[in-house]
Write a structure and sequence with these properties.
The chain has 16 helices and 13 strands. The protein is α/β, with parallel strands linked by helices. The protein has one domain: Glycosidases (TIM Barrel). The chain is globular and about 60 Å long. The N and C termini lie close together (9 Å).
């Protein structure tokens, strides 16, 4: 069976991971510019100074999207390219770059889906406290208003933040991502609260500044729980565990999603975090819970759980068992049913249609002697995950689209350039682009609406 006719077939990328041109045309420094220059923070001391040089090669990249027959492209904007210091007058050259890119995408028949923030906070704002500063709410709102005024006549699909658990959990709590801090949990909860408030302020700015009707979400991620069997007890145990909010690591999906949809933090988390909770007002929760139009969810992996004697979730040893297939990054266990259960559980809880804003597979791809890039594992991975998505749609789950991560091999944060997610291989020495076998396979899937799966 084909996917629904209006299903969005997409691919994604993020500004810092592909643009390069880190100090050109008035762009300011981001926290990742600073973090990646510190020895030992990134694999082999890689950085995003050049990355895929998309800032100069964007026409070539959009031409590849046209060749792929992509229906939509999820991109992010570099805040420090638009506001070098994070506040004040916008940088005309930065806005002009995105202006041209959006026009080129539309000319190619590719609908832009724009993310305002994909982890590249202006360093100047981090020096003023970053997300621990309550002013972040207004800073981000002002930035969103600038973007809405310039691009909102053409861009109709928006995401405010990408993966808040990575922004706060990895950036402020575990110190693995920029800005590389290891703060007390109470500070991290405060930063999380400010991030969610900033999301709400951005929703207001986008609705006020864009022309016509827009659709807005925040891109969540989590650790998917997959029932070990389809026995009712296992399903209920997996559902409850998926939305529990007591882990003191900020990877609790409901901690981020419940305030946006329901206007309140999960009670189990509030109780568990106790004195670490920030002071929260009704007005702040009203701001956070501005109306959103869909669930954006980045789905990669997960683990299996079964119900114990008391009906609680019990993680299977290792999550999957010894020898389960995986990508080259240790967290990417291949879990084909992850999108099925993630979409089913979330749409049941939140009552909104869902878009998979990221899903992809990393490998050690290289150009073979025949000049091509053969990546059968990626093709198999995507086929399995799309099969699970189609099953969910057939079961009545409202899934509106899928964005493969990523259109290009790129800078994979602390892992540098060693792990490749792209449909297009990038030679980082020459910047030569080579479409992989998966590129042509995905093009065929798009052409036939998924019938070939």
């Amino acid at each position: 069976m084909p996917f629904p006719k209006n299903f969005v077939w997409g691919a994604a990328a993020a500004a810092y991971q592909i643009e390069g041109a880190w100090d050109e045309d008035g762009r300011g420094a981001s926290v990742w510019d600073v973090f990646s220059q510190q020895p030992g923070k990134v694999f082999e001391n890689h950085n995003g100074n050049v990355a895929c040089d998309h800032y100069h090669r964007w026409r070539e990249d959009v031409a590849l999207m046209r060749e792929l027959e992509l229906k939509a492209y999820r991109l992010s904007l570099a805040w420090p390219r638009i506001q070098p210091g994070g506040t004040g007058k916008p940088n005309a050259k930065g806005l002009a770059f995105y202006d041209r890119l959006i026009d080129e995408l539309l000319e190619a028949g590719v609908t832009p889906w724009v993310t305002l923030y994909h982890w590249d906070l202006p360093h100047a704002l981090q020096q003023r406290g970053g997300f621990l500063n309550r002013d972040m709410v207004e800073w981000f709102g002002d930035y969103a208003a600038i973007v809405a005024e310039r691009l909102g006549d053409r861009v109709k699909n928006w995401m405010t933040f990408n993966e808040p658990p990575c922004v706060i959990g990895l950036g402020y709590h575990e110190g693995m991502f920029a800005p590389g801090l290891k703060l007390p949990f109470a500070d991290c909860l405060l930063g999380a609260h400010h991030l969610l408030m900033a999301h709400g302020r951005a929703v207001q700015a986008l609705r006020a500044g864009c022309t016509g009707k827009v659709k807005i979400a925040i891109a969540h991620t989590g650790r998917e729980r997959i029932p070990a069997t389809e026995d009712k007890r296992d399903i209920e145990a997996a559902r409850r565990d998926y939305f529990t909010s007591t882990e003191r690591a900020l990877w609790n999906l409901a901690w981020w999603a419940d305030p946006v949809v329901f206007g309140k933090y999960p009670e189990d988390g509030v109780k568990a975090f106790g004195a670490d909770m920030p002071r929260v007002t009704a007005a702040e929760m009203k701001l956070i819970s501005q109306k959103t139009d869909f669930i954006a969810y980045n789905c990669y992996s997960g683990w299996q759980v079964r119900a114990d004697a008391n009906g609680n979730a019990e993680k299977l040893p290792g999550g999957w068992g010894i020898g389960n297939p995986r990508g080259t990054l240790p967290w990417l266990n291949i879990a084909p049913m992850a999108p099925y259960w993630a979409a089913r559980f979330q749409t049941e809880r939140y009552g909104l249609p869902l878009v998979f804003s990221e899903n992809g597979y990393c490998n050690t791809d290289f150009v073979h002697l025949d000049g091509k890039v053969h990546d059968p594992q990626r093709i198999d991975f995507i086929a399995r995950y799309l099969g699970a998505i189609r099953r969910a749609i057939d079961d009545g789950v409202p899934i509106a689209g899928y964005f493969y991560w990523s259109i290009l091999d790129n800078f994979e944060w602390m892992e540098g350039y060693k792990d490749r997610f792209g449909l297009v291989h990038v030679d980082y020495q020459t910047q030569r682009r080579t479409p992989k076998d998966s590129f042509y396979w995905y093009r065929d899937v798009i052409r036939n609406g998924g019938v070939s799966l």
